[in-house]
């Protein structure tokens, strides 16, 4: 679907620029106002580049033996947190996603309620959820799993519902016309169409959870993030570089695995 303002800018009407010009001016005003509020300053960034270079230079060379000595178990724990956070988010959201899709939900009111539930889950940051669950279940990876599961449910549920709404309605209408139940329609007409998209969404969320779980470890929710923040507090920047290398390796390996799995599904 083409956005109307963008269509006007790319293809101005024959009457002239009197319609396009206000849009350009309003866009410029909005961006300028946002830049003022965000205190964007190129000069401050340029002035801070030497400090960034100093920090990076302190991380060189990485303390590679530290990976084998102390980071293997936290890296595995990070994967476990991300995996279970993803699995639980999918389990939580599958029933809600059908009710949050306009073409499946039995009532408009249920649709809006489910959409708002997903908005609430998605709107609360993982760090806030992790802090709440650390207070509830104590320090450790379980708090991180619960935080990723709830926030991920809001993200995954939104994309699941949109995939259902964008599918071809023909098979579903044909099964309804032949007298099939709602459950039969979902199993044989809906799921075969949305399953490939759902797998892509789940894999993307798994990749995101690996990155996020590394951050959650900084507040006591387990994983390699704890080692990362500890090394920075101890000014062991070579160890910090090793933690960053392990996190990047986890993300790269997950991306390769996701690509291979998508090829198999197609």
Write the layout of secondary structure elements.
Blueprint: H1 4-10, H2 20-38, H3 42-58, H4 65-99, H5 108-123, H6 126-137, H7 141-165, H8 170-177, H9 182-216, H10 224-233, H11 237-265
Alpha-beta classification = mainly alpha
Which outline best applies?
globular
β-sheet strand percentage: under 5%
Q: Outline the low-pLDDT stretches.
A: none
Total helix count?
Answer: 11
Order of helices and strands: HHHHHHHHHHH
Helix fraction bin: over 70%
Which value, in Å, is the CA radius of gyration?
24 Å
- The total count of strands amounts to 0
CA-CA gap between termini: 25 Å
**Main sheet attributes: strand count, strand direction, barrel closure:** none
Q: Report mean pLDDT, rounded to a whole number.
A: 83
State the main characteristics:
266 residues; mainly alpha; 11 helices; 80% helix; globular
Please describe what this structure looks like.
With 266 residues, the protein is an all-alpha fold. Helices cover 80% and strands 0% of the residues. It is built from 11 helices and no strands. The protein has helices at 4-10, 20-38, 42-58, 65-99, 108-123, 126-137, 141-165, 170-177, 182-216, 224-233, 237-265. α5 (108-123) packs antiparallel against α7, α6 crosses α7 and α9 packs antiparallel against α11. It is globular and about 70 Å long.
């Amino acid at each position: 679907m083409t956005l109307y303002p963008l269509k006007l800018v790319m293809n101005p009407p024959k009457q002239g620029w009197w319609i396009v010009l206000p849009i350009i001016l309003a866009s410029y005003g909005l961006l300028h106002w946002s830049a003022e509020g965000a205190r964007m300053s190129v000069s401050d960034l340029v002035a801070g580049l030497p400090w960034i270079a100093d920090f990076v230079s302190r991380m060189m060379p990485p303390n590679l033996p530290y990976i084998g000595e102390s980071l293997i178990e936290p890296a595995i724990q990070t994967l476990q947190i991300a995996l279970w956070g993803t699995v639980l988010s999918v389990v939580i959201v599958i029933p809600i996603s059908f009710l949050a899709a306009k073409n499946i939900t039995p009532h408009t009111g249920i649709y809006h309620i489910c959409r708002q539930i997903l908005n609430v889950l998605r709107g609360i940051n993982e760090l806030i959820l992790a802090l709440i669950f650390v207070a509830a279940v104590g320090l450790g990876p379980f708090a991180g799993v619960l935080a990723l599961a709830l926030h991920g449910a809001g993200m995954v549920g939104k994309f699941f519902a949109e995939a259902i709404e964008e599918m071809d309605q023909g098979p579903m209408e044909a099964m309804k016309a032949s007298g099939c139940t709602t459950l039969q329609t979902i199993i044989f007409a809906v799921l075969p169409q949305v399953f490939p998209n759902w797998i892509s969404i789940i894999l993307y969320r798994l990749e995101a959870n690996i990155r996020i779980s590394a951050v959650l470890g900084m507040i006591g929710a387990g994983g390699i993030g704890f080692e990362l923040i500890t090394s920075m507090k101890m000014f062991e920047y070579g160890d910090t570089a090793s933690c960053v290398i392990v996190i990047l390796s986890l993300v790269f390996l997950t991306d390769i695995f996701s690509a291979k799995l998508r090829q198999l599904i197609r």
